[in-house]
Amino acid sequence: MKYPLHLIKLIETLKKLPGVGTKSAERFAFHMLDWQPQQLREMSTIIADMPSQLCCCPTCGCLEDNGSCPFCIPERLQHQKLCIIACAKEAFAIEATGEFHGCFHVLGTLLSPMSGKGADMIDMDKLFRRIKSNNVTEVVIALDSTLEGDATALYLKSALTHAGVTISRLAFGIPMGSSLEYVDGGTLAKAFSGRSPY
Ligand SMILES: [Zn+2]
Hints:
Radius of gyration: 21 Å
Oligomer: single chain
Number of helices: 9
Helix content: 40-55%
Mean pLDDT: 92
Strand order of the largest sheet: 2-1-3-4
Structural class: alpha/beta
Shape: globular
Bound molecules: zinc ion
Order of helices and strands: HHHHHEHEHEHEH
């Protein structure tokens, strides 16, 4: 016996979310069958309003809040530091550490020649303009420790060589609270090469 058509549509839609397979989507869909019509309408309205309510700052690419960007305020510009991230979500994760008080710059993508994402996908002119207009002295590259992240970091390092800024990249190494015995070889090698004076 097949599910009713609308339920199949709901399950297929939920499966578009990352990490949601058929089983999870079915569980969510059957759970939503118990919701009141008002709850379902509220959820659909929130999702439908996303394009108008959640906009990216034209300057840094982070998410705006009520029409203004919380990451482009004058107090942050004073620090003359620019942290390059791949997507807007990462700004919130870095912000939560309390370690960085400068501005962010969202690339929007990582270089991946295999997927057709070459250097032309990165707007270097915009990055250079920000470095100049904000009198940036340090650029922090906060990209993934993956092939794509490493390739993008190398490209940025090379492109910014003559930009008159200090370039740093987040350290990679042993996760907090973990034992060396369980750390994989690649992570341990990166931790070794990135060791700092103690
Ligand atoms: Zn901004």
